[in-house]
Write a structure and sequence with these properties.
Blueprint (H helix, E strand, L loop, with lengths): L12 H66 L1 H11 L3 H73 L2 H12 L12 H12 L4 E2 L8 E2 L1 H11 L8 H4 L4 E3 L9 E4 L5 E7 L2 E7 L3 E6 L5 E6 L2
Parallel strand pairs: 1-2
Antiparallel strand pairs: 3-8, 4-5, 4-8, 5-6, 6-7
Helix pairs in contact: 1-3, 1-4, 2-3, 5-6
Amino acid sequence: MIPTGSAQAKPTVQDVQHRVDRLYRAAEQASERYNQIHVQLTQMRGDVSALRADQARQQKQTEQARQVVANSIVRQYEGDSLSAVGQAVVSSNPKAFVSQLTTMSAFNSMQAGQYSSYLTQAKALSLRQQATRTQLAKVAQLEQQAAQDKATIDKNLASAKSLLGKLKAAEQQRLLDASRGTPRIPANIPASGRAAIAIHYAMAQIGKAYVYGASGPSAYDCSGLTMRAWGAAGVGLAHSSSAQFGEGTHISASQLQPGDLVFYYHPISHVGMYIGNGMIVNAENPSAGIRVTGLYSMPYAGAVRPG
């Protein structure tokens, strides 16, 4: 009898490794988007606060202009204007009559100017209200994107853990050992000044855990590690690999010096720190944690010298 099918082959450790790596990669891409969104949200929430303060100031100016117009209308019907009309009506002196009309005309022109000022202020207020609404809508959209990226991180991380969990303990340990590799930590890294401080910080974190969105002290993601390392040297960086790519002097691979930041993938979604000798220290993924690896162990995208 000819068989109609065959049992599905059991995946090898290498198969699982590749699948886990792809899941980690997708999770890191989502994580770095998530980090970048939070960098943008911090700026945008500051903008919203400024817009609201500006709107409040404009609201006050608009109310003041409205009160001026309201008061002038009251005066027109209850005050000086009625008196001027009465004097004009009873005046038998033509010159006095013309003089009173001129006074009334001047008053009405002033009132028209006040009304025009009010319209200008009201329009300015409307523009500020619309700007605030627009910025709030952008914030809401980014917050929704952040939530979606967080869901992607959680889903891919859970899938990776599930794959690892299906392996026998010994096979799983071999996979983890293979992913970590043997770190080739140099005995001496030629660096000075702020770069030396940043390198010292990053190297001291080797062996710690990789956690999406973390920035120390017990766990890091890729940009969290480089942010904290250079922060220890007094250089502020955003918690985002794509943002860090714009926060320094761009250099070629041939110009690399210890302490420089090296970026990977297109679009950029991973960053490590160059330590010389063709090696980087980086927060790699949840299996590998923070370790030393080769400069070209991932698709190279460019490099930046902070500070």
